[in-house]
Structure formats: structure tokens, C-alpha cells
Amino acid sequence: MWSFSNIADQIHEWLSSTFNPTWTLIIEMVIAGVCVIGLFAALGLVLVIMERKVSAWIQIRLGPNRVGPKGMFQSLADTLKLLVKEGMTPNGADKFLFNLAPFIAMIVAMLLFAPIAFARDFQLWDLNIGVLYVSAVSSIMVISILMAGWSSNNKYSLMGAMRSGAQIVSYELSAGLSILAIVVFTGSLSVPDIVRSQADGWWIFKGHIPAIIAFIIFLIAVTAETNRAPFDLAEAESELTAGFHTEYSGMKFALFFLAEYMNVFIVCAIGATLFLGGWMPFHIGNWEGFNHAMDWIPSSVWFFGKTFFLIFVIMWFRWTFPRLRIDQLLNLEWKYLLPISMFNILLATLMAIMGWHF
Amino acid sequence: MFIVKYIKDIFGAVKSLSIGMKRTLYYFTHHKEIITQQYPDNKDTLVLPERFKGEVVMPHNENNEHRCTGCQACELACPNGTIKVIFKNDLTPEGKKKKAIDKLVYHLELCTMCNLCIEACPSDAIKMAQTFEHSVYDRSQLTKVLNNPGSKIMEGVE
Amino acid sequence: MYRQTDIISDSRISPQEGDLVINVGPQHPATHGVLHLVITLNGETIKKVEPHLGYIHRSIEKMCESLTYRQFIYVTSRMDYLSAHINNHACALCVEKGLQVEVPARAQVIRVLMDELTRIASHELWWGAMAMDLGAFTPFFHAFRERETINDIMEETCGARLTMNYMVPGGVMQDLHPDFQKRVKEFIQLYKRKIHEYDELVTDNIIFQNRMKSVGYLSPEDAISYGCTGPTARGSSVSSDIRKLYPYEIYDKLEFDEVLETGGDSFARYMIRIREMHESIRIIEQLIDNIPEGDFQAKTKAVLKLPKGEFYTRVETARGELGVYIVSEGGTTPYRIKFRSPGFSNLSVLDHIARGSKIGDLVAMMGTLDLVIPDIDR
User: Helix, strand, coil: what percent of chain A each, to 5?
Assistant: First the structure.
């Protein structure tokens, strides 16, 4: 059957038979890099148009409908516009850091693609601490935001960056703890292991109460971690004009913009992997016919379907809720999410020991 | 009791948020609620109300005749000096000299569509038109002469 | 002599070492116009707010002195453009007071209907804009759905959507459009069908309530001493509805309640406006089937001349008390005109209520004060 893993194997075999192992590795890395950049661009375009359509329909508007069929090329046109726009650097800015910050944001988003299993046996880098790697690397994002805010030499930017620092550092905790609940169930940090453990049912069903609590906390925490409304205090349009990227324009702004969407994609992919079974199809007990029909759908479709569902949920949050205030944001984390997730992880541990999950 | 209140708070919050999300999901799935008017596309079917104040025009009949006597009521009524009446001397059939309008100059760029000139006009010579796309590249094009060239006053209008 | 430096040293708190002074506006998404606030911050906490005015000063009061009593009314639409009808109404009332003209009953009812429709339209826009200040973008579009319906009604009867210039001394400029009653009833239907969504989307939302409650507290004493009127004062339980206190037109014959809240915080001011919309709908429902027949305009002279003297009238706009003060020398143009605009006094409490709260709160407070900048500067 056609699948990503077959293609990858064939390419690997062909390269191994043609070149020596070192060159094979180098060429494979180049191919992977090109694929990631391609995926990056494609996902960016898709997510931007998706966000615009979702917001338009929620706001009883039509949304973009001029460029291409049903406006589907609108984000392509926008990207083109951003590419040819002048990327200005303010006079008082720290020029080196100012220009470096968007690239760091971009690189972090790219690094995060490594451990994600996009389809059955298809992964860039199968490392045994995949989940830990994601939560570690995604924290580097805050450095690029702080760098951008500080080097812009703008008070709004600086305040946005400081808010973002406080926010990401605190929400990292509950995001990590809710991931840990699943790690406790699975007993492994490796992404393929976690996916394989869900062959007989997704964790959100198998782990019932603690898994559902962990899932909700995970969704809230990653929304905050990616600086999306209602937690978009780093940008806070009506308060700080545009927050940390006030002074950015052109492609440098576009890189921040892309990195935000990429981060949303990654955290949703992680959420889909941990709670919704990654590329595992949906199975119900002993319904053989139904299960076979589900198996017939390619695993990559399952993965992207779940991920895009979670992305939709995060967009749905954004277009429904007002923004929190900075002290309420921190209250929510330290007084509600963190105690609940700590309690939750105790419950999950107890369940894992007693074998109460299915 | 603290714990009970804490848990109640959480459930109350989740409930209020989910009500809002239900409402937005309703609009997300019900596209017939969309209220957008696709303006340049619906130009053919776009009907403006008959009282819409777009610009001042002077209707002429098929013989190129208007109803303006040149009484200057509109010029006096206008708060912005939008209308200027310029006179000429006409000859009546009997050979007498008669005052008549040469040009009724209308500065659209000054007009605030307050309708006072229309109200002031005793002979219904001017009215508001329903056009609204007034943008031009050169400001001088906004200064218009309302009476057609060669037009004259209608019979019987004093 | 009052020099700029005097004003700065006069202020109770001047910036100290470590304070962050930032300019919010004149171009800023939350100021809804060209308001310029210089805010002194300690971290996220506001120490001082200093509004700088004058960016949209068009000297409307001076302009009015060169216009006749018929002409000057149109300019006042440009003051508080969201309640243009009510501004025009105030001016028309003042001229009528000077002329001693009796306005026909039909004109009075039409005026009140238009005022209340304007009030609803203004509050709808305020609701959407305030939700947008708090970061929720969706309510803005939902508010515009209802507001556009009112604008369509206005366009049909008055010929314009925002600056109608429909009130003239002695009545209204044109009679109602034949479809007016039908359209207004349709609007009331739409309003009643959709108003619960406002609560679902914003009022009952836990994030919104936390943002608004016990924020920007204004005590009744302060509300009086700062001269606040309208929903801002009524949120602090200060009775200030001109329609009740100094009834004009037919408001004394109508059944409606003055909306009062005791909270004094942003949420109280929010609820006042939401409840005022219901009251306006109540007034419209009483009047829409009972529009008396008759003239829509009293007979007035072609050239209006006010007798020598001073005339003052006040009306309740969507934002508070609007006073019109005309000094006449007996000529065709006023000798002096002064507008007492509600936005100016309401803005003056901003510094008082914003001290000690966060930047996000400042935005919410500015939203609940419902500032319209052209009204403040005139």
C-alpha cells in the first residue's frame, strides 16, 4: 500500500546502494530539511487561510473570497506582499538582536518538527525522549520573543515581551504536568511508543477522568504558551498595539507570524499524539467491520485530521473569548491549573499503579 | 467549604465559557446568517432609498428646461457656501431684459448633504440624487455646474 | 499666566526614576479616535493618566456663531457622531425655546422615536467596540448586524446613515417614510431575537466579568464632583437622567425607568447601557403604534431671529447630558454658543479611577466611559 514509510524506505535503500553511509546520511538530512521547509510553508498558508475563514464564519462574514477559487490563494498573495515589503529596522534598535529574533523563532518551530510521527512508521527523528524534547525546545521560543521585545527599543514591545516571559514560563509547568499524566500511563517518553500504546483505544478514552482533565489543561496551557487569544497578552492589540512585534515589518514580521502558526500546529500535533492516538485510527471494541473500515483510511489522514481538529478548537477559543488581564492570567495558572494538574498527576499515578485504566 | 467554592467556581467558569462557544459554533455552522453585502458585485441590484442624500442635482425635462428662477434661496440657506448662482441677462420675447441664471455652481467637495438647500428652494428646481461614488482623481472635477449648457427656465415657473 | 511647566509641576505625581511613561495615542487601537493619553506606569500598574486633548478640535462653537439658527444644527451632528439625532434635537429645542414655537405632536413623537433609535444604535456600537477593546472580536460584528438595521431605517427616513440633520427648528425636516413603522417593528423583532446572544457572548462570560467587576470604582460623590452624567454617573447610582429630571418633548408622558446600578465599577456602567437599550425598546414600543396624525413641522418664519437673551436646554444623549447655551443679540446668528458635552466631564474621571489598576483595566475603563473623541474636543 502507498504510505509515507514505504517511500522513505525506498529512498533510503536507493541512497544506501548508491552512496557510502556518510553521504547517505547527509543527503537524507538535506531531503528532510527541504521537506520540513516545504511543510512549513504549506502549513503556514493553510493555517492562515483556515484562521481567516473560521473567524469570518464565526463573525457572520464571508471572509477572503477574491483571490483564487473561494479565496483559497489569499494567504499566498499576502505572503507575496510581505516578501516584497521593506523590512525596516528602527534607528534606536539593537540591530543584530532585532534581526536575529525572528530567525530564532523560526528555528525553534522547525526543530520541533523532529520527533513528531506524521504517519505510521514515519518520523524524522525517533528519539527516546521525544515528548521531553518538545517541551524543552518549545521553551526557547520565549527567548526570541524577549529578544525581539528588548531590541526593538520600544516600550510597548518591551512590555509585551516581559508579559510573554512571565506567561510562557508559568504555563510551561501545567503543560508539562498534563503531558506527564500520559507519560505515566504509557511508561515511555518516546513518541512511537506512546502512539503504539493507543492501538486498543486512545488515551482520552482509556484514561478516562485524569486523561480528560489532563487534556483540558493541556489545551488551555498550550493556548497560553503559543500566545493565542484569550492569552495573547504579548500582542494584546488593544493595549500594546502589537506587543513584541510592533516594530517588525515585511518578512521579519511574517516569520514571527509563521512561527506562531507553526507552534500552534506542533502543540496540536503533540496533543493529538498524546491524547487522541496520533496516527492510530479510531477503533471501537469488537466491531470488526467498523474497525477495518477505519484502518482503510491512511494513517497520515488520521494524524492531520486530529491535529486540524485541535487547531480548530484553539481558533474557536480565540474568536469567542475576551482577553485575560495579566494578573488574572497568572492567577489562573498558579491557583487553578497547577494545583489541579498536580492533583491530577497523583490520580493518574494511582490509576497506573492499580491498573484502573482500560 | 473553601474546596466546595473552588470547585463550584471552576464548573461555573467552564459552563459560562461553553455557552459562549456554543453560540460561536452555531454561527460557524450556519452560513445563512452571514450578513455581508458584496458591494461592487451587487451594484446592479443595489437600491438606495429615494430620500438618500448623495449629491445635489438639477432635473431637466426633455426640452432642456429647468425650474430654477435664480432666487438664491439655496445659496443663502447653504451653511458652507457650496452653491453659487451666477447670473446673465436674458432677453424675453418682447425684447425686455430679464435676469436668469447663467450657471448654478455646486461644490461637491464642500457639501455636507444637509438638505437645507432643497428645503429652501421655492420652485423645486434642485433635488438630491442617489449617487454616492464621488471619488475623482482631480479635485476640480468635484466643482460642478448643475444646469445643462444652453438650458433655460421652464415655462410658467416664477 | 498658565505655562505648560506649571501644569506639569501642578500634577500631584510627577514621573520618578524607574517609572515608565508611555504615550497611548493619538494613534492607538484602544482610543477610538485621536485621544492622547500620557500614562505613567510602574511595571504594569498605572500611576497617572494624563489626557491630552485638541487633536480633533474643529472649533464648532466658533463656527456656529457665523451660521444662522437653521444652519448651525447640521454642524452639531459632527460632535458626538454616534448620537447625531440627539445633538440636533438639543439645538432645535434651544432655538424653539427662544422662538416660543409650539412643536406639533407628531413631530414630538417622531423626534423621541428617532432619539431612542439613535440611543440603541450608539449603545450597540459601544458594546461591540468595548468587547473589541477587551480582545473579543466577534461581538463587534454581531453588534453591527443590529446597528445596520437601525441605520437602514435612518437612511430611509432621513436620507443619511450617520449625520442625518433631520431635526429643524419647529419639527423635523421630512415626514416619516411610509415603511417606517413596519421597519421599526421588524427591528424590534430582530432585537428581541438576538439580544440574549449579547449575554451569552459577553455579559455572562467569566473572563469578561472578572475583567469588569470591581475595576475602575467611581464613588457617587466623585461622580458628582467630576460632573459625570449619563451612564457613567448612573453606574454609581447618581440619578442623572435628563429625560426624568427635566423632561422635554413627551418624555414625561412615557413609561420608562431610569436605570440605576449601585456597583460604581466598570461592570455597573456596562449593565446600565445594556439595560438602557431595553428601556429604549420599551419607549419605542409605546410610541410606534401611536404616532399622532398632523403636521411634522410648525410654521416658522423664513429667517429665524431669536430675541435678545440667553437660552439653555439640555437633553440626554447616549453618553450623558448635552447642554446647549445660546446667547442672542437679537440677530439672525447667535452671539455665542456653548455646548456642555458629556464626554469631556466623563473623560476627566479617567485619571481618578485608573490609578492603581493595570493597563488592561485602563482599556476596559475607557470602554465603559464610552468616549467619543470629537465630542470631547468639539
Answer: 70, 0, 25
pLDDT of residue C290 exceeding 50:
yes
Cβ–Cβ under 8 Å, residues C79 and C60? yes
Average pLDDT over residues C60-79: 87
CB C257 within 8 A of CB C345: no
Give dist(CA C301, CA C170) in Å, integer: 10
Q: Give the residue ranges of chain A where pLDDT is below 50.
A: none
**CA–CA gap between residue A174 and residue C87 (Å, rounded):** 54
Residues ≥6 apart with Cβ < 8 Å to A234: A145, A160, A161, A163, A164, A167, A227, A243, A244
Q: What is the pTM of this model?
A: 0.86
The CB density around residue A106, as the number of other CB atoms within 10 Å, is: 19
Which band of pLDDT confidence, cut at 50, 70 and 90, is reported for residue C198? confident
Q: Do B119 and C201 make contact, defined as CB atoms within 8 angstroms?
A: no
Given CATH 3.30.70.3270, say whether it is the number of domain B55-153.
yes
Contact (CB, 8 A) for C331 and C68: no
What DSSP designation does C336 have?
E
d(CA A231, CA A166): 12
Q: For C100-120, how does the pLDDT look when each residue is reduced to its tens digit (9 = 90+)?
A: 888 888 888 888 888 899 999
Tell me the β-bridge partners of B85. B104
What whole-number distance in Å separates Cα of residue C190 and Cα of residue C277?
13
- Tens of pLDDT, residue by residue over A17-47, are 887 888 888 888 888 888 888 888 888 888 8
Provide the mean pLDDT of chain C. 85
- C18-22, C93-97, C156-160, C338-342: range with lowest mean pLDDT: C18-22
Q: Compute the distance between CA of residue C164 and CA of residue C153 in angstroms, rounded to an integer.
A: 11
Please answer whether residues C342 and C323 qualify as being in contact, where contact means their C-beta atoms are separated by less than 8 angstroms.
no
Task: Work out the minimum CA distance from B138 to partner chain A, whole angstroms.
Answer: 29
Least reliable range by pLDDT among A209-218, A331-340, B86-95, C32-41: B86-95
As a whole number of angstroms, the distance between CA C325 and CA A166 comes to 53
Quick check: A87 and A101 in contact, CB under 8 A?
A: no
Q: Which residue of C has its CA nearest to A246?
A: C28
Element (DSSP H or E) covering residue C109: helix C105-133
* Mean pLDDT score, C23-52: 83
ipTM of the complex: 0.82
Torsion angles phi and psi, residue C338, rounded to 5: -135, 135
Q: Which domains does chain C have, with CATH numbers?
A: 60-349 (1.10.645.10)
How far apart (Å, rounded) are the C-alpha atoms in residues A339 and A35? 41
Q: Where are the domains of chain A?
A: 82-354
The predicted structure's pLDDT at residue B109: 87
Subunits with 3+ C-beta pairs closer than 8 A to C: A, B
Look over chain B and give the mean of its residue pLDDT values, rounded to a whole number: 83
Pairing state of beta strands C45-52 and B55-57? unpaired
Between A61, A321, A340, which is nearest B34 by CB?
A: A61
CA dihedral C181, C186, C192, C195 (to 10 degrees): -110
pLDDT given at position C13: 53
Q: How many CB atoms sit inside 10 A of residue B4's CB?
A: 8
At CB < 8 Å, which residues of chain C contact B? Answer: 67-68, 70-72, 74-75, 138, 145, 148, 155-160, 163, 165, 168, 173-174, 177, 197, 200-201, 204-207
